[in-house]
Amino acid sequence: MKHPSEHRLKALANRHRLQILEWLKTPTANFRPQVDGDLVDDGVCALLIEEKLGLAQPTTAQHLKVLVEAGFLVPKRIKKWTFYKRDERAISDFMAKLTAI
After folding, report:
1. Segment (H or E) for 78
2. CB-based burial label for 31 (10 Å; 0-12, 13-18, 19+)
3. Max CA-CA distance within the chain?
4. Can you give the CATH number for the domain in which 68 is found?
5. Is residue 51 within 8 Å of residue 60, measured between CB atoms?
6. Comparing C-alpha atoms, which of 6, 11, 2, 10 is closest to residue 64?
7. DSSP labels for 29-45?
8. How many domains does the chain have?
9. For residues 49 and 85, what is the distance between their CA atoms, to the nearest angstrom?
10. Which SS3 state, helix, strand or coil, does residue 86 take?
């Protein structure tokens, strides 16, 4: 079984996942307006992330799943859609641990 930090490092070892995290820092600057959910308060719809990445839905879904499992993203269901936003506390805690090594 992997240590949680190892799982988190693996999550960050992919350019697409790093790009998703970067875009979600400033969602209103990086994504078009969405019908349901506020980009900042509720997060960004997976469809908009998929659209911006330019990858197939299953591939995008896998990247999002890895980021959620690592604790970097928080999913939220609204109607039939899933919205994602960064967990800033989890990200900063992990980065502090990395810099303490």
Report:
1. strand 73-78
2. middle
3. 44
4. 1.10.10.10
5. no
6. 11
7. HHS---SSS-TTTT-EE
8. 1
9. 11
10. strand
| Residue 56 token pair | 């197939």
> What is the crossing angle of helices 88-99 and 4-11, to 10°?
100
The token pair at 87 is 């967990």
6 residue type, one letter: E
Taking only the tens place, the pLDDT of each residue in 18-58 is 999 999 999 999 999 999 999 999 999 999 999 999 999 99
Residues of the domain holding 61: 4-99
pTM of structure:
0.91
Q: Which residues contact 7 (CB under 8 A, 6 or more apart)?
A: 69, 70
Q: Looking at this protein, which amino acid is placed at residue 48?
A: L
Instruction: Identify the residue whose tokens are 């697409």.
Output: 16
Question: What residue has token string 């079984």?
Answer: 1
